[in-house]
Fold this protein.
Amino acid sequence: MFRPVFASVIALILVWGSASAQAAGDLDELLRVIPEDANVLMVVRVQDILKSPRAAKEDWAKKQEEAYLAGAEAIPPWLSVIVRATHLHLEDSSIGWSVGVARTMGPANMQRIAEHNSGIVEKIGKSQVVKTQEKGFFTQLGPKMIGVIAPAYRQQAAKWLKFASSNTESRLPAYLAEAAQNPAPIVIAIDTQDMIDPDSLRNWLKSTKSLEGKPGKVDGVSYIYNNLKGITVAVTFGEQTTMQLTLNLGVPVGINSLEVKRTLIEYLEDSGAAFSDLNNAELTAKDKVVTLTAPLTDAGLRRIFSLIITPNPGGSHSMSETPPVPQADVDAKKSKTASQRYFTQVDQMIDDLSNKTARANNYDRTAVWHDSYAKKIDSLSLKDVDPALADYGRNISQKLRAIGASLRGVSLKLSTAQNSLVVDYSVDAGNFGGWNAGGYLGGAAMYSPPTWRATSNLEDVRKRQADAVVKGADQREQIWQSIESDRQDIRKKMLETFGEDFTQGK
């Protein structure tokens, strides 16, 4: 089981909260297009989030353009419900396929999707599609229903399009189908049946601090995890945001609930996805169910959303006419608005991962968040964004990835070119693990687990990795200083380009 891909999934799994006005019935139309071999499911009820007490109080609907909820491009408020499903191969953390489908508040428009993605409308079989920059295919599944499949393999996409056009009912595995019944605004579930490698799991548990000095507990906790049916996370939004992580077991948890909590948190830390909101979570165990419930901080929420990429065809559902405006003024306004949004989104992510966070507990266990934020920056729309600002974003993304690599023990080489810091690094997946292109539409870059997970020299490799992380601290500090310098330079340039109100509110 304990492969770092779980970190991306578990880190997402949050809260049963106040019941939403929409129940599972509203998903039937969307769930029917999900292939039956899905093992991860995510549901985001956008309108329920925007209508929640906290969202109304803080005007999230208006702030969505500034990515208030997300660490990157905000979920469009004109989407009603989003469903994303994936088939993950835990052994190598690869994705077989990923499918997303969303209901829109108004008619979808393939031409606008094409324009937003700098693509063209083409055909696969009888279906119109648009190939995205993220290597997937968008399509229109109904008047108010859009879908996307990745990777962009034409034959695989053709099979899915035929399935989506002919299938009439949900074919989800039982665990995911039950999780879809949860009415929380955000629900993420993973079907873990037959997914866990018992030997890898036991070797990892024997090395944990949580079970240090408790050899008799290893077999009991291992037995619990080997009978894990699935994990569900739900997030709810009341006056505060709440998160609940639920482990559904095939056997009673008995007296092992505290060890299950501690090893789960340690696993996230060990995988570079430390999630401090869970540390003080309330633990509840009853028979075959273990739950962790805790308030979710804004930073925690943004980290969760940093792992979610939503189908964003661009444009609004509003078709209202507006008075004509001179094209030059339109272009200038578009560029300023797009650039402000992009700048704000990148700025927020840097704040979340800044040196203040760097000095906090478990900073050396946050590689996942650096990588997911880098991926999120890469996924931001560059349409109408000032070219200098776009270059800045790409530079920040590369540096965050370098920090993430350093936090896994990868050695960096820093040099200076044209007064800018240049980072050169390579990841040896056989030593400390590596990252591949990963998911889409709700996926994060997926961690390729190092081979020592199932070997006997785990402690030795852990020590070497920890030593490498400590040695890389000065380099990471240099990169952070470079990021802050770049940040100030681009702020000054954007103020000169767009005026003093460009960073208003910052």
